[in-house]
Amino acid sequence: MPLTEIKLAGRQSRADEIYQTLRTNILAGHLQPQERLVESKIAQLASISRTPVREAIRKLEMDGLVWNSGQGMVVGSMSAVDLADACAVREVLEGMAAGTAALARSELQLLSLQNLARQYGITAATDDVGNLVALNHAFHESVWQMAGNRYLTQQLLTLRANIERIQDTTLRLPERRRQSHDEHHQLADAIARQDADAATEISRLHYREAMAIRLSAVASQA
């Protein structure tokens, strides 16, 4: 679905606004895999020069969302192998974030995480998948923030966005909802005890199990 208009609000640099606009459209599926990103056309739609557009596309390339096809920059796609690789890297980084969070967290951060775990548990008993996904994101982003490493957080945000572009959530499965609820509480408890080893292992197991479900779902669609 080609872009027909780009409106800039002026709250960020032009390059950042173009980057966010394109990124949002890619992740939402409005820009499809292999669709070309033509600098001159995007610049015309946004009524700006090509320089900030070029910078924005370069950032998207660093995120792995676009790449050079040899005939220009196109929206990237992910194979089942790419998905497996991304999930494997995410598992390691999630474990790193959880282990670091257990040692670095404040009491206020811990209370917020425990509250999110409780809200998640209440919602997991319903069929409100959209709200459950939002709470799941909030829970894990809370762990990342506890770790206090913005580079780690940025990598995890990018990985999550890429993975969910291919297979959006595992939480439509009732059994996975129950299992993830238990794992969230186990992780929150390990962080409360400041047990970095346990937090790392629980987090990695949590994502290993989610990865297996994701890969199975993608294989069944092939």
The number of distinct β-strands equals 2
CATH superfamily of the largest domain: GntR ligand-binding domain-like
Structural class: mainly alpha
CATH topology-level name of the largest domain: Four Helix Bundle (Hemerythrin (Met), subunit A)
* Whole-number tally of structural domains: 2
- Shape verdict: globular
CATH architecture classification of the largest domain: Up-down Bundle
Helical stretch tally:
9
The profile of the biggest β sheet is:
2 strands, antiparallel
Estimated helix fraction: over 70%
Low-confidence stretches: none
Quickly name the level 1 CATH class of the largest domain: Mainly Alpha
Q: Any idea what the radius of gyration is? A: 19 Å
End-to-end C-alpha gap: 23 Å
Give the strand content.
under 5%
Quick check: average pLDDT?
Answer: 88
Strand arrangement, largest sheet?
1-2
Order of helices and strands: HHHEEHHHHHH
Briefly, what is this?
The longest helix has 26 residues, at 196-221. This protein has 222 residues and is mainly alpha-helical. A hairpin with a 4-residue loop joins strand 1 (66-68) and strand 2 (73-75).
